[in-house]
Amino acid sequence: MKPSSVESFHTVLFCREWDACVNFYRDILGFEEVDTRAGFVEVQVTPESLIGLLRHKKEDGAINLDTSIILSFKVGNVGKMHQRLSKRCKGVTELKRHPWGARLFELRDPEGRRLEFWTPL
After folding, report:
1. Closest to 101 in 3D by CA, of 80, 68, 78
2. Per-residue DSSP letter, 75
3. Residue 63: Cβ within 10 Å count
4. CA geometry: angle at 9 spanning 1 and 23, to 5°?
5. What pLDDT, in 10s, does the model give residues 59-96?
6. 85 in Cβ contact with 92 (< 8 Å)
7. Which segments within 1-121 are labelled E, that is strand?
8. Which residues contact 61 (CB under 8 A, 6 or more apart)?
9. How far, in Å, CA of 101 to CA of 121, rounded?
10. Count of alpha carbons within 13 Å of 13, Cβ hemisphere only?
């Protein structure tokens, strides 16, 4: 993968303390809110880096620290990236449409953390 094929980088944090986390990143740190949906807020750190805050409901169970973060890479052509990474590593999921308007696939790093690669529809 060439670094130039990644257009932006997003980190998604699962938040048990939803209101406190949104307040911290948006109001205390002062990051601009650029996307809001039910249970999701995204703030912009730099023009190409964002933090997504995803509500984790207590009834959903405990958060596993290895999987409580998503490293999210926006790429120019998710199909080509899928082909490239499918040849290089195991566990690459099939391409799918995501409800928030993207085509994406996922894989896990050696520690079990989730990485997603996506292109807007």
Report:
1. 78
2. E
3. 14
4. 165
5. 666 666 556 788 888 999 999 999 989 998 889 999 99
6. yes
7. 6-15, 32-37, 40-46, 49-55, 69-75, 96-98, 102-108, 114-120
8. none
9. 6
10. 14
Q: Name the architecture of domain 3-120.
A: Roll (3.10)
According to DSSP, residue 21 is labeled H
Tokens found for residue 64: 């596993």
Radius of gyration of the chain (CA): 15
Does residue 102 contact residue 120 with C-beta atoms inside 8 Å? Answer: yes
Q: Answer whether 69's CB lies under 8 Å from 9's CB.
A: no
Instruction: Decide if pLDDT at 3 tops 60.
Output: no
**CA triplet 36, 77, 13: central angle to 5 degrees?**
35
- The tokens for 48 are 């190409």
Q: Is the pLDDT of residue 43 over 60?
A: yes
Sign of CA dihedral 119, 37, 44, 111: negative
Cα separation, 85 vs 26, whole angstroms: 34
* Phi/psi at 31 (5° precision): -75, 135
Angle at CA of residue 16, ends 6 and 62, nearest 5°: 95
Q: Tell me which DSSP letter residue 95 carries.
A: P
Tokens of 11: 């980190």
